[in-house]
Amino acid sequence: MADDLFASVVQLHQPPRPKSGAERAKAYRDRKKAGLPLGVKPLPAANVSRKVDVKPRPAVPAEKVLVDVESARSVLQSRPEAVGAAVDSQAVDLVGGQVSHRPNLSHHRIILQVAAFGLAAVGVTMNGWFARSLGSSEIAGWLFLAIGVAADLVALAVPSCAAQQWQAGNRATAVVAWVLWLMPFAFAVTAGIGFASVNISDVTLQRASRVTPAIEAARNELRDAVTSRDRECAGGVGKFCRQREDAVSDRRRQLDEATRSVEQTADPQTEAATRMVAWLSGGVLRPTGSDFAMLRLLLLAFLPQLGGVLLMVGRATPQGN
Length: 321
What we know:
Elements: H1 2-12, H2 21-34, H3 62-78, H4 80-87, E1 90-95, E2 98-103, H5 107-133, H6 138-167, H7 171-208, H8 213-232, H9 239-264, H10 268-280, H11 289-302, H12 307-316
Antiparallel strand pairs: 1-2
């Protein structure tokens, strides 16, 4: 049995039979057809579907990759606005060599931009309306309207452009832009003052001229007093005639007091504000209604013109906030 096992092992390890001339010629033709070098056997025809030419890509040294990451990190830290403009709506953040994307606009920037455009729309409408009301004719009114709208748009756009020029290193251009911005800004503020003062005075006069029950009663009493005086003084000036004259004077004084009380309540905001300031300060500060009216006029004129400044502040807000 040992002889049989030894014979089987010997038979398995027999050297291959040498090829004949025809077999060598066929193998040569197959290698030449497949484009293989000598010594490489072609794959069976069933497993070869097409010839694939794979070119290996050159390997990038690890030192070069680290240098590129560090340069990108330095660009992001020195010029974040340039990167933000390049990616448009996404900001790039390199953390440990990894690139991550996050939204470019934060909630604070969106709120500032919405408020800026809202104030700008109000300012354009106010100043356009007031500028048109200054025209003596239809054409002049429309020309003034165009000037008012253009001035408001310039006052809106210049602050952001000036800030960009300053960040880009064009300091002279930025200073010139701010100087030019002062002219349309002053024009817009004066137009806002005109719009606010005209409308507030019209409303105040309308409220002051309203007839209250107290005024109506004072007018009726004055009318009766005048009728009594005329009847008593028809026959000459005497004791009772002078009494009727005094009664007419008293009724007129009561009518004036009732009218002044209505005029004082025509602008309740100023009266309430002055009383509140006096109460909060313990009587140390006692502003008048005219003081608060001037403060209100100033705020109504300046606030609609701050849209451009808000846009500039929104652009300077960090993107991560």
